[in-house]
Amino acid sequence: MADKRYRTKQRDSILAYFASHPDACLTAKDIIESPEIEVGEATVFRCLSHLAKEGLIKKFASDEGALYQYNREGECNHHFHLKCLHCGKILHLDCELMHSVSEHIGKDHHFTVDVSRTVIYGLCEDCDSTKR
Amino acid sequence: MADKRYRTKQRDSILAYFASHPDACLTAKDIIESPEIEVGEATVFRCLSHLAKEGLIKKFASDEGALYQYNREGECNHHFHLKCLHCGKILHLDCELMHSVSEHIGKDHHFTVDVSRTVIYGLCEDCDSTKR
DNA sequence: CTAGTTGCAAAGAGTTTGCATGGCG
DNA sequence: CGCCATGCAAACTCTTTGCAACTAG
């Protein structure tokens, strides 16, 4: 496998795209079809996989293929994320109580929570009100 | 769309398979390749989708395609689930504190948590100890 | 120059759909 | 009998891989 990483314009443009959409969850398709990015399909997948492996972006599974999201230098790795099932918006749950929740699960349920991989699903305020 | 549902032996055998593996997370492939089940590929997908829509099983996304899990008459809909990133095991987090967590998120963060759709990722006790 | 990267096209998985046949109610 | 379900194969989508040309270091 590749150990060294070259800095190419393709890689840079994909990373820049994530940096300019720091809260968005993007599919590979989003990037391939994005007019700002002129990169071959296979390269997009390869870059995404590299970037995810390096921790610069996060990857998670969804119904319509893998989603990728910018990882702002690890600053989102210590809090939970909420994702709205209706509009797809991601909220950052930075809150003391939630830190103690991880501890509680670790101590009392013997399970080491990986906060950065966990997404709590539900409905955001806006979607919840329009749905009733 | 189909509103009525017929009871067929294919549907029954798939449901029985879930009932006999109540904690397992199964892919469509698992079911198609299972020797106990003699059902066409397309039918498996159609049944899974029906069963999920009816709430008899739960569906969630993963890297290798959708996972389906038996839903024991809704009794898993009010607690969180923990999934080990290493061995894939699912644990049921039935605990008072966690109920109040949903409430807290609802009240203080204006987000209505859908417990049944949420999976908390991390490492279970066994995998955590072998990993260090 | 060397090793990683790219783009294209082909190959692969997983899943869906069209259509004629079969089976529940 | 009517209508949904089934099975097969073809179609589709998302993702990976082989390979020759290319480029960063």
Which helices and strands, and how do they pair?
Two copies of one chain form a homodimer.
Chain A: H1 9-20, E1 25-27, H2 28-33, H3 41-54, E2 57-60, E3 67-70, E4 80-84, E5 90-93, H4 96-109, E6 111-113, E7 119-124, H5 125-130
Parallel strand pairs in A: 4-7
Antiparallel strand pairs in A: 1-3, 2-3, 4-5
The structure holds a DNA duplex (25 and 25 nucleotides).
- Give the assembly state of these chains: homodimer
Query: What is the straight-line distance between the termini of chain A?
Result: 52 Å
The biggest chain-chain interface is: A-B, 32 and 32 residues
Order of helices and strands of chain A: HEHHEEEEHEEH
Largest β sheet strand count, sense and barrel closure of chain A: 3 strands, antiparallel
Give the tally of structural domains of chain A: 2
Q: Quick check: average pLDDT of chain A?
A: 86
What is the percentage of strand-forming residues of chain A? 15-25%
Total count of helical runs of at least 4 residues of chain A: 5
Corresponding CATH superfamily of the largest domain in chain A: Winged helix-like DNA-binding domain superfamily/Winged helix DNA-binding domain
Identify the CATH architecture of the largest domain in chain A. Orthogonal Bundle
* CATH topology value of the largest domain in chain A: Arc Repressor Mutant, subunit A
Main sheet of chain A: which strands, in order across? 1-3-2
Q: Any idea what the shape of chain A is? A: globular
Poorly predicted regions of chain A are none
Kindly state the percentage of residues in helix of chain A.
25-40%
The CATH class of the largest domain in chain A, by name, is Mainly Alpha
